[in-house]
Amino acid sequence: MAELKNTELTPKQIVEKLDTYIIGQEKAKKAVAIALRNRFRRLKLAEDIRDEVAPKNILMIGPTGVGKTEIARRLAKLCGAPFLKVEATKYTEVGYVGRDVESMIRDLMAVGFNDVKAEMEDELREKSVSIVEEKLLDLLLPGSNEKKSKKSSTEIKPMGFLSQENENEITIDLNKVAQEMGNLQEQINLSNQEAANQQLSDEEKAEEERNKSTREKFRQMLREGKLEDREIDMVVHRQNRMPSMEIIAGGSIDDLQNSMQGILNMMNGGGKSKKRSVTVKEARKILTEETLENMIDQDKVSDEAKRRVEQSGIIFIDEIDKIAVHGESHGQDVSREGVQRDILPIVEGSNVNTKWGVIDTTHILFIAAGAFSVSAPSDLIPELQGRFPLRVELESLHKEDFKRILQEPKNSLIMQYTSLLETEGVKLNISEDALDRMSFIAEDVNARAENIGARRLHTIMEKVLSDISFEADEHSGETITIDAAYVDSKLTDVVQSEDLSRYIL
Questions:
Q1: In this structure, which long-range contacts are made by residues 244-251, counting pairs with CB atoms below 8 Å and at least 24 apart in sequence?
Q2: For residues 63 and 318, is the Cβ–Cβ distance under 8 A?
Q3: Residue-level pLDDT at 329
């Protein structure tokens, strides 16, 4: 199994990679780049000191839509680390509503397991092609791959009824005489039977050659894709895995319900095989999945996933400001403080039971984020504050940022919309003044209504292009130009009305 990718990237190189997708927020990108690089540095240390170096967890502060989640997600994707985003509010009302905080570790382990399994499947996929091909041929030509063999022997064994105790005396055992004579007769009968079947044997050989020739013709047709739509009958083997009882290891009500549902499905025959009529294309997919499942060493997957989660896993805890306690604790605030205290040992480092084994959370990188518009980071309990030593404040976005976001990132918003319309034969030309106008409107509406950052661009683009998207099939082969005047024609009324802009944009 390959190591995590991009382990030799310097912090500057990491920032450059993030710049491909994220506009601005240099401080935040620099902080995560350092955090990532330190993780790789730690792995190069001697074992005695390596275990002492804990990750420097990060607290991102800023309004929604400015890139907090995207920075964390792209960072994890850049190095191939298991990544999980959770909402802090998901764990409110501990023990009653919401899941226990340990479930985030079980969920992260599930992500890591699936990632490693997918990688192993990719490594084995080429090898599985020939196996699947043979199985498809068996389904298309039943009996064409049967091996016919006959056990025959014309050898006459030497008779064993003669024995010589010494060189001058030979004795005869009458019982052995009778036995050997019977064996001799049996061999004679077999020889006669073989002679009688010789002609049939020649015909079978000819049939075998014909079957072989037919199988090779079908093999060629398979490889050329000529049989993809042909229907065949096959037995689909459903997975019949034992349900996981994670509730025993500290799971939640949701975990218990899922486990009980798994038991009921198994009792109702959920794991039985079923005969289906499918196309060759569908059969290939089913057989590939079954073949890869059998080829993969599940224990090896589990061990590698556990290593990655423990050494390189990243958990992004969003809306942590929603569980911050402002002033004296009372009512619901008591529950929120309880959530913080439940999260604390996970962040500090503890052992969490999962169906893949015990996970040590000591070296998992935690990135917490929140707007902190009502509460402040100091409203978090002191112990939890101390576990997020890196504080980064993300800046609000302005019209210059919005314009760059529209066109600069890889697979930018403009590129996405133009590509979608090109599938209908419509070429979209968005002018420079249109970009300026949409960027200005995004900034203005964010200032007057709720500040949702770059997400405002999505609502604006949808509003501007709604009519074109609806009538695209009627404009196939045309080039449509979007300028500032067109943007104003679609948005002016909405922008000028504060109520409408609040609810529509």
A1: 244/355, 246/106, 246/353, 246/354, 246/355, 249/353, 249/354, 250/100, 250/102, 250/352, 250/353, 251/100, 251/102, 251/103, 251/106
A2: no
A3: 53
For residues 125 and 148, give the distance between their C-alpha atoms in angstroms, rounded to a whole number: 31
Contacts of 125 (CB under 8 A, 6+ apart): 288, 292
pLDDT of residue 162: 46
Residue appearing with tokens 């439940």: 342
pLDDT in tens, 365-411: 999 999 898 888 999 999 999 999 999 999 889 999 999 999 988 88
Say whether pTM exceeds 0.85: no
CATH number, domain 399-493: 1.10.8.60
Torsion (CA) 72, 106, 240, 268 in degrees, nearest 10: -110
For 214-238, give one letter per residue: b (16+ CB within 10 A) or e: ebeebbeebeeeebeeeebebeeee
The ranges of the chain with pLDDT < 70 are 1-7, 92-99, 143-182, 184-185, 188, 191-201, 238-272, 326-334, 494-505
Q: What is the pLDDT of residues 451-474, one digit of tens each?
A: 888 888 998 999 999 999 999 989
How many whole angstroms separate alpha carbon 224 and alpha carbon 39? 48
Number of H helices, E strands in the chain: 17, 13
The domain ranges of the chain are 11-122+299-393, 399-493
Residue corresponding to tokens 């590509």 = 419
Report phi then psi at 187, rounded to 5: -65, -40
Amino acid 245: pLDDT: 42
Half-sphere exposure (Cβ direction) of 231: Cα atoms closer than 13 Å = 4
Task: Using DSSP bridges, classify how beta strands 390-393 and 169-172 pair: parallel, antiparallel or unpaired.
Answer: unpaired
Outline where 449-497 has alpha helix (H).
455-470, 484-496
Dist. CA 399–CA 126, nearest whole Å: 49
Q: How far apart are the first and last CA of the chain?
A: 48
Query: With contact defined as beta carbons under 8 Å apart, do 55 and 35 qualify?
Result: yes
Domain 11-122+299-393 and domain 399-493, same fold? Reply is: no
Contact indicator for 441, 397 with CB cutoff of 8 Å: no
What class, spelled out in words, does domain 11-122+299-393 have in CATH?
A: alpha beta
Residue 145 · residue 122 · CB < 8 Å: no
Q: What's residue 485's pLDDT?
A: 92
Q: 3-state DSSP call for residue 97? A: coil
Nearest to 143 by CA among 203, 202, 215, 235: 215
CA dist 457 to 397, 410, 443, Å?
11, 16, 9
Beta bridge partners, 390, equal: 58
Q: Residue 91's pLDDT is what?
A: 80
Q: Beta-carbon neighbour count of residue 386 at 10 Å?
A: 13
